[in-house]
Automatic annotation (TrEMBL):
InterPro entries according to UniProt: Dihydroneopterin_aldolase (IPR006156), FolB_dom (IPR006157), GTP-CH-I_C/QueF (IPR043133)
Keywords: Folate biosynthesis, Lyase
Domain Dihydroneopterin aldolase/epimerase, residue spans: 4-115
Pathway: Cofactor biosynthesis; tetrahydrofolate biosynthesis; 2-amino-4-hydroxy-6-hydroxymethyl-7,8-dihydropteridine diphosphate from 7,8-dihydroneopterin triphosphate: step 3/4
GO BP term, example: folic acid biosynthetic process
Function: Catalyzes the conversion of 7,8-dihydroneopterin to 6-hydroxymethyl-7,8-dihydropterin.
Catalytic reaction equation(s): 7,8-dihydroneopterin = 6-hydroxymethyl-7,8-dihydropterin + glycolaldehyde
GO molecular function: dihydroneopterin aldolase activity
NCBIfam families given in the database record: folB, folB_dom
Chain's gene name: folB
Pfam families listed in its UniProt record: FolB (PF02152)
Protein name per UniProt: 7,8-dihydroneopterin aldolase
Gene3D superfamilies noted in UniProt: 3.30.1130.10
Length: 118
Protein backbone atom coordinates (compact mmCIF):
# COMPACT_ATOMS: atom_id res chain seq x y z
CA UNK A 1 0.00 0.00 0.00
CA UNK A 2 1.26 3.46 -0.83
CA UNK A 3 0.12 6.95 0.04
CA UNK A 4 -0.31 9.93 -2.25
CA UNK A 5 -0.73 13.37 -0.72
CA UNK A 6 -2.32 16.38 -2.35
CA UNK A 7 -1.75 19.27 0.02
CA UNK A 8 -2.84 22.86 0.03
CA UNK A 9 -5.65 22.74 -2.54
CA UNK A 10 -7.18 26.22 -2.26
CA UNK A 11 -10.68 27.19 -3.32
CA UNK A 12 -13.16 29.96 -2.71
CA UNK A 13 -16.37 28.60 -1.22
CA UNK A 14 -19.50 29.61 0.69
CA UNK A 15 -19.46 27.34 3.74
CA UNK A 16 -20.44 28.30 7.25
CA UNK A 17 -23.35 28.70 9.60
CA UNK A 18 -23.57 32.47 9.46
CA UNK A 19 -25.58 34.09 6.64
CA UNK A 20 -22.68 36.36 5.66
CA UNK A 21 -20.45 33.30 5.13
CA UNK A 22 -22.95 31.98 2.62
CA UNK A 23 -23.28 35.35 0.95
CA UNK A 24 -19.66 36.54 0.91
CA UNK A 25 -17.71 33.27 0.92
CA UNK A 26 -14.12 32.70 1.96
CA UNK A 27 -10.97 30.75 1.15
CA UNK A 28 -10.82 27.07 2.10
CA UNK A 29 -7.81 24.77 1.94
CA UNK A 30 -8.06 21.00 1.48
CA UNK A 31 -5.38 18.40 2.21
CA UNK A 32 -5.79 14.81 1.02
CA UNK A 33 -3.95 11.61 1.82
CA UNK A 34 -4.91 8.80 -0.54
CA UNK A 35 -4.00 5.17 0.11
CA UNK A 36 -3.59 3.25 -3.11
CA UNK A 37 -2.07 -0.18 -3.71
CA UNK A 38 1.16 0.36 -5.63
CA UNK A 39 1.74 -2.37 -8.18
CA UNK A 40 5.48 -2.23 -7.70
CA UNK A 41 6.77 -2.42 -11.25
CA UNK A 42 3.96 -0.55 -12.95
CA UNK A 43 4.21 2.94 -14.31
CA UNK A 44 0.75 3.53 -15.76
CA UNK A 45 -1.99 5.91 -14.73
CA UNK A 46 -4.47 3.02 -14.53
CA UNK A 47 -2.50 1.65 -11.57
CA UNK A 48 -3.14 4.68 -9.39
CA UNK A 49 -5.56 7.63 -9.27
CA UNK A 50 -5.55 10.57 -11.66
CA UNK A 51 -4.60 13.61 -9.58
CA UNK A 52 -6.34 15.97 -12.01
CA UNK A 53 -9.62 14.08 -11.57
CA UNK A 54 -9.22 14.12 -7.79
CA UNK A 55 -8.63 17.86 -7.91
CA UNK A 56 -11.69 18.41 -10.11
CA UNK A 57 -13.94 16.43 -7.75
CA UNK A 58 -12.74 18.41 -4.72
CA UNK A 59 -12.99 21.73 -6.56
CA UNK A 60 -16.59 21.04 -7.62
CA UNK A 61 -17.66 20.18 -4.07
CA UNK A 62 -15.93 23.12 -2.40
CA UNK A 63 -16.88 25.74 -4.99
CA UNK A 64 -20.38 24.64 -6.02
CA UNK A 65 -21.93 23.14 -2.89
CA UNK A 66 -22.80 24.77 0.42
CA UNK A 67 -22.10 23.13 3.76
CA UNK A 68 -22.76 24.73 7.13
CA UNK A 69 -19.94 22.77 8.78
CA UNK A 70 -16.47 22.02 7.47
CA UNK A 71 -16.87 18.64 9.17
CA UNK A 72 -19.73 17.88 6.78
CA UNK A 73 -17.66 19.05 3.82
CA UNK A 74 -14.76 16.79 4.86
CA UNK A 75 -17.11 13.80 5.24
CA UNK A 76 -18.69 14.48 1.86
CA UNK A 77 -15.29 14.68 0.15
CA UNK A 78 -14.11 11.41 1.72
CA UNK A 79 -17.25 9.55 0.65
CA UNK A 80 -17.21 10.97 -2.86
CA UNK A 81 -13.53 10.17 -3.38
CA UNK A 82 -14.02 6.54 -2.36
CA UNK A 83 -17.07 6.30 -4.61
CA UNK A 84 -15.37 7.89 -7.62
CA UNK A 85 -12.02 6.09 -7.43
CA UNK A 86 -12.29 2.32 -6.94
CA UNK A 87 -8.50 1.93 -6.51
CA UNK A 88 -8.55 4.05 -3.34
CA UNK A 89 -8.41 1.88 -0.24
CA UNK A 90 -8.58 4.73 2.25
CA UNK A 91 -8.64 8.49 2.30
CA UNK A 92 -7.95 11.15 4.90
CA UNK A 93 -9.38 14.61 4.27
CA UNK A 94 -8.54 17.79 6.14
CA UNK A 95 -10.52 20.96 5.42
CA UNK A 96 -8.98 24.20 6.70
CA UNK A 97 -10.99 27.35 7.30
CA UNK A 98 -8.21 29.89 7.86
CA UNK A 99 -10.60 32.84 8.14
CA UNK A 100 -13.16 31.30 10.48
CA UNK A 101 -15.26 33.91 12.30
CA UNK A 102 -13.55 33.56 15.67
CA UNK A 103 -13.01 36.63 17.83
CA UNK A 104 -9.30 36.48 18.49
CA UNK A 105 -5.97 35.57 16.98
CA UNK A 106 -5.49 32.03 15.66
CA UNK A 107 -3.44 30.31 13.01
CA UNK A 108 -5.89 27.77 11.63
CA UNK A 109 -9.11 25.87 12.11
CA UNK A 110 -9.62 22.53 10.43
CA UNK A 111 -11.77 19.42 10.46
CA UNK A 112 -10.35 16.04 9.52
CA UNK A 113 -11.92 12.71 8.71
CA UNK A 114 -10.71 9.35 7.49
CA UNK A 115 -12.60 6.68 5.59
CA UNK A 116 -11.61 3.15 4.59
CA UNK A 117 -13.15 0.93 2.01
CA UNK A 118 -15.12 -1.88 3.66
Amino acid sequence: MGEIALLGLEFYGHHGVRPEEGRLGARFVVDLWLQVPFEGKGDRLEETVDYAQVYALVEAAVRRRRFYLIEALADHLAEELLRAFPRLQAVRVRVHKPHAPIPGVFRDVYAETERRRS
